[in-house]
Design brief:
The chain has 308 residues and is an alpha/beta fold. It folds into two domains: 215 residues, P-loop containing nucleotide triphosphate hydrolases (Rossmann fold, 3-Layer(aba) Sandwich); 66 residues, no CATH class. Helices cover 38% and strands 23% of the residues. The protein is built from nine helices and eleven strands. Strands 1, 2, 3, 4, 5, 6, 7, 8 and 9 form a nine-stranded mixed sheet that branches. A two-stranded antiparallel ribbon has the order 10-11. Strand 7 and strand 8 form a beta hairpin. It starts with 15 loop residues before the first strand and ends with a helix.
Length: 308
């Protein structure tokens, strides 16, 4: 086999993105939204009992319903089917089942330990590790963009919300084998309240700073970066003018998150339009704020049952 040298070029790479978060945080929605921004034909390997189908309004995509047993080999087979069909983006929703689902690696370890090693699970990992590694390699070597989701171990915490106690969900460590995040270009953890994400790993330079909203524009920026463009950071709109009762000025995002009615969101939008006219917000920041407002409006409508 001849060994050759070539020039490094980012455009030769494909995206490997991991989205993790607790149950109900919007992992499927976020993965499909980013896939839409990346462009091209999209297929979803759905292990969540058809959860992706409820988002068919986002854009056109096809689905493989992957049922138990969730062995590494079944995941690899599904990825190969998508590749052979020529899909540009493969969403794997989720990789958690390959590790801890029915028939996944942890169950296989127990079975192998009983059958081959007299119950010694430590020895059984010598058998299961290459099989799990083959699944990881299938994602890494795919000619398609890979957008994977993973469940985080959920923990609740009591926080102070304007003088009142509120219980919130916190995303913890993604449920898969330790170290899997090293294999991805970017790892984003979704905040439960709203479609915002923070980067635990980011080779693109797009997600530095505060949590960023996941939008179609996120996928477009990732596609541009992969094509060799400069990393254009996803910027947070400038702080709004209205202070909260403690005297601290709230950001636009914080004000949107705190809004409880569609009318309040409309008032924030009107104020933002005025800020654009005054040069306090850029058109790009205004567009991002619109997407945040739309996401919050959808949440309010779902909570109240009242649509605008």
């Amino acid at each position: 086999m001849t060994i050759s040298i070539r020039k490094a070029r980012r455009s030769a790479t494909k995206l490997r993105l991991l989205l993790d978060g607790p149950s109900g945080s919007g992992k499927t929605w976020g993965a499909l939204t980013i896939a839409k921004g990346l462009g091209g034909r999209c297929a979803v390997i759905d292990t969540e009992q058809g959860s992706s189908d409820i988002y068919d309004h986002l854009h056109e995509f096809d689905v493989i319903d992957l049922a138990p047993p969730f062995t590494p080999e079944r995941y690899i087979e599904a990825i190969k089917v998508c590749e052979d069909a020529g899909y540009d983006v493969i969403v794997i929703d989720s990789i958690t089942h390959e590790w801890s689902g029915k028939g996944g690696c942890l169950e296989l370890v127990d079975e192998i330990a009983r059958a081959q090693f007299r119950g010694n699970t430590w020895s059984a990992y010598s058998v299961i590790t290459p099989r799990h590694r083959a699944f990881i390699d299938a994602m890494l070597r795919s000619p398609a963009h890979i957008v994977a989701t993973g469940r985080s171990k959920t923990e609740t915490a009591q926080v102070d919300d304007g003088g009142r106690k509120k219980v919130v969900k916190l995303g913890m460590k993604v449920e898969t084998r330790d170290g899997v995040e090293y294999e991805f270009t970017t790892c984003l953890s979704i905040i439960h309240d709203g479609h915002f994400a923070t980067a635990s790993k980011d080779r693109t330079g797009l997600f530095t700073g505060d949590p960023k909203p996941i939008t179609v524009e996120t996928g477009k920026r990732l596609a541009a970066w992969l094509a060799g463009g400069e990393a254009v950071r996803i910027v947070e709109p400038a702080p709004a003018s209205a202070p909260n009762p403690t005297g601290k000025r709230l950001s636009w995002r914080e004000r949107v998150a705190a809004a409880t009615t569609v009318e309040a969101l409309g008032a924030i939008g009107d104020e933002a339009d005025a800020a654009v006219s005054d040069g306090k917000l850029t058109a790009e920041q205004r567009e991002q704020l619109d997407r945040v407002i739309d996401a919050r409006q959808a949440e309010i409508e779902a909570e109240t049952g009242v649509t605008a």
